[in-house]
């Protein structure tokens, strides 16, 4: 009796699934295999479902077709920023990208994130991305210690509004993959790191604000940006790195004239 | 791999770069032709009669168009980066500039 329950549940689930997938059948999924230097797209046939994300597709391949497929994810709900990949050659968070939205003729192509070295298959080395975050002055330095009273933060104050605009960045590197300036200049700090610098520059609780303008006005700094806006178009959290970088351009210019004048 | 780039700001960037490069190629030629007025007036006259042909007129339109595109593209960039306006303010400003260009353009065409 006890043993038959799971069997019946399984049969039920299989029948239900078959009913849903009758007309959609299989997806033809090309997945990048190998490294950036040596690799190719490999075709997999994946059962289609009514509700399915690109991350579900990749996980299905890894679990049922080829256990050696390498990819990265953690939260599955758009919080951790680890699952970004190129989907039909556009950078996307795969856990929040529905297959239906990107499917073309039952086909979809999944590759490793652009502008970062590929370790294997769909996993890229994100060290460079995080190193630039630090190089832009993006590591928080508290302006008050444990024993100090907690300073009040007025959410309506204009600098705080600017700081809050970029605070929801999840470090997914989608903007970095979308940026053609990064593609052309490997030293360019990129949209996410510069947006972080702008956030901290406007944050009263950050103690190293003076260093930020120097950090973002070097050779790889904010003035490389051409305001082409791919970062803002592709950011899955609807953030606006392009405008944050414009803010840094204004502040560095202001600092430059102030220094010459005084 | 080529991520999709067909969004307005990216196309504006490409237009700005191509028009900028085309201007950089054209302007030295332009100044050289103008300098003929001082050095060899008869060659300039010969050249000017050449420019009466419709195809050359069309090319001239292209160059004026390049300059206009690059100038407004550059002004757009400078406004975007230097004036931290809100989105509705930007739409209004762009609309106002558009209408102004339209009106002054029609006026200009009537004068010539
Ligand atoms: C009419 C007034 C002009 C304005 C307002 C203007 C404005 C600008 C601006 C703001 C940029 C920076 C674009 C960016 O960051 O991507 C730029 C780039 C450029 N301009 Fe101009 N410009 C003007 C005239 C010219 C002329 C006459 C030439 C030709 C010699 C020229 C050639 C270029 C080139 C080659 C670039 C580089 C394009 C790029 O980086 O994408 N510009 N211009
Ligand atoms: S606006 Fe600047 S940072 Fe954003 S994609 Fe364009 S060049 Fe890169
Ligand atoms: S700015 Fe947006 S796209 Fe870029 S890393 Fe942060 S969340 Fe991702
Ligand atoms: S798995 Fe965490 S953002 Fe997609």
SSE arrangement:
The complex is a heterodimer of chains A (262) and B (112).
Chain A: H1 4-21, E1 26-34, E2 39-47, H2 54-65, E3 84-87, E4 90-93, H3 99-102, E5 107-111, E6 118-120, E7 123-124, H4 127-135, H5 158-165, H6 174-178, H7 180-184, H8 191-201, H9 209-215, H10 230-234, H11 241-261
Helix pairs in contact in A: 4-8, 5-8, 8-9, 8-11
Chain B: H1 8-39, H2 41-50, H3 54-82, H4 87-111
Helix pairs in contact in B: 1-2, 1-3
Total count of domains of chain A: 2
The CATH H-level homologous superfamily of the largest domain in chain A: Alpha-helical ferredoxin
The stretches of 5 or more residues of chain B where confidence is low (pLDDT under 50) are none
Helix residue percentage of chain B: over 70%
CATH architecture of the largest domain in chain A: Orthogonal Bundle
Question: How many helices of chain B in DSSP terms?
Answer: 4
**The top level CATH class name of chain B:** Mainly Alpha
Question: Which outline of chain B best applies?
Answer: elongated
- Percent strand of chain B equals under 5%
Biggest β-sheet of chain B: count, sense, barrel? none
- Give the fraction of residues assigned to helices of chain A: 40-55%
Extended strand count of chain A: 7
Secondary structure class of chain A reads alpha+beta
With helices defined by DSSP (H or I, 4 residues minimum), what is the helix count of chain A? 11
First and last CA, distance of chain B: 49 Å
Biggest sheet details of chain A: 5 strands, mixed
CATH class of the largest domain in chain A: Mainly Alpha
Provide the succession of SSEs of chain A.
HEEHEEHEEEHHHHHHHH
- Give the mean pLDDT of chain A: 90
Bound molecules: protoporphyrin IX containing FE, iron/sulfur cluster, FE2/S2 (inorganic) cluster
Give a quick precis of the structure.
The complex is a heterodimer of chains A (262) and B (112). Chain A has 11 helices and 7 strands.
């Amino acid at each position: 009796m006890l043993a038959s329950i799971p069997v019946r549940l399984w049969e039920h689930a299989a029948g239900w699934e078959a009913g849903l997938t009758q007309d959609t059948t299989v997806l033809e999924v090309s997945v990048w295999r190998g490294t950036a230097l040596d690799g190719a797209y490999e075709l997999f046939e994946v059962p289609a479902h009514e509700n399915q994300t690109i991350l579900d597709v990749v996980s299905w391949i890894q679990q049922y077709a080829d256990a050696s497929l390498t990819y990265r994810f953690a939260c599955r709900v758009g919080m951790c920023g680890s699952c970004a990949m190129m989907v039909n050659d556009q950078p996307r968070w795969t856990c929040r990208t529905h297959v239906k939205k990107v499917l073309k003729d039952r086909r979809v192509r999944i590759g490793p994130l652009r502008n970062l070295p590929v370790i294997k298959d769909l996993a890229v080395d994100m060290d460079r991305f995080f190193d630039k975050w630090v190089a832009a002055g993006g590591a928080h330095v508290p302006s008050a210690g444990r024993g100090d009273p907690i300073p009040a933060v007025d959410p309506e104050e204009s600098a705080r509004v600017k700081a809050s605009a970029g605070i929801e960045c999840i470090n997914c590197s989608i903007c970095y993959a979308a940026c053609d300036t990064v593609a052309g200049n490997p030293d360019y700090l990129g949209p996410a790191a510069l947006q972080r610098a702008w956030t901290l520059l406007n944050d009263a609780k950050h103690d190293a604000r003076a260093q930020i303008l120097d950090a973002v006005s070097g050779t790889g700094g904010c003035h490389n940006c051409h305001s082409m806006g791919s970062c803002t178009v592709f950011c899955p959290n609807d953030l606006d790195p392009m405008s944050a970088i414009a803010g840094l351009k204004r502040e560095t210019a202001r600092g430059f004239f102030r220094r010459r004048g005084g | 791999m080529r991520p999709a780039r067909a969004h307005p700001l990216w196309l504006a960037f490409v237009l700005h770069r191509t028009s900028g490069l085309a201007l950089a190629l054209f302007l030295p030629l332009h100044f050289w032709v103008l300098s003929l007025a001082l050095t060899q007036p008869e060659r300039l006259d010969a050249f000017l009669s050449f420019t009466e042909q419709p195809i050359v007129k069309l090319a001239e339109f292209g160059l004026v168009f390049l300059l206009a595109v690059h100038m407004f593209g550059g002004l757009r960039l400078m406004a975007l980066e230097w004036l931290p306006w809100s989105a509705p303010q930007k739409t209004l400003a762009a609309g106002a500039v558009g209408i102004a260009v339209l009106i002054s353009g029609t006026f200009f065409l009537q004068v010539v």
